[in-house]
Amino acid sequence: MTAKPRPQVDYDVHELIQxxxxxxxxxxxxxxxxxxxxxxxxxxxxxSSGNEQPWRFIYATQAQAERFQKLLACLNEGNQVWxxxxxxxxxxxxxxxxxxSGRPNRYAWHDLGLAIGNLTLQASAxxxxxxxxxxxxxxxxxxxxxxxxxxxPVTVIAVGRLGDPEMLPADLRARExxxxxxxxxxxxxLN
Length: 191
Ligand SMILES: Cc1cc2nc3c(=O)[nH]c(=O)nc-3n(C[C@H](O)[C@H](O)[C@H](O)COP(=O)(O)O)c2cc1C
What we know:
The protein is α+β, with helices and mostly antiparallel strands. The protein has a domain at 43-161: NADH Oxidase (3-Layer(aba) Sandwich), CATH 3.40.109. The protein is built from eight helices and four strands. The longest helix has 18 residues, at 108-125. The relative contact order is 0.23. The site of flavin mononucleotide has 9 residues, from strand 3.
């Protein structure tokens, strides 16, 4: 199995950060219940504005075939091609309004991102990998899972162990093995 080349970091950040990337080829090996719950536990302990904890999750494993297919069907075709083989799919959602005040919580999406950041690093620590997707129909997800009005779908994420890039169509295989690209720090830190 060809290994993904690892990029050269400018500063020596933690190996769990250096190790992380978003694969499309996943091993069919299922995640254990312990692994899945450990990922959600990591998400649970993220910081959030007013401790609102606005993140919500709906997940399906391959063993939950009907539920998995329902979640998979929400994805764009381009994502379905590879995500169908992932052992777990997670629909991430936010509670759009504050439980305390009832007002819109404009930090909800920010805080979900923090929770997914935690989940992703915990995945790295367990030798698991996460691929987040914005390419899905939020309307379809809302209908499929009968979501209440104040719960909004944000992404679907695939989680699993690394698989063999050979299982992918040629165009995706090339992307799978490409070096990750990043803007230079000087472009990100504004004066
Ligand atoms: C919110 C969000 C939406 C994304 N949507 C998709 C998607 O629909 N399909 C896909 O293949 N990758 C998607 N990605 C993955 C990004 O393309 C990927 O993270 C980026 O190219 C950097 O690559 P890396 O994660 O391997 O470092 C998404 C990532 C995020 C955070």
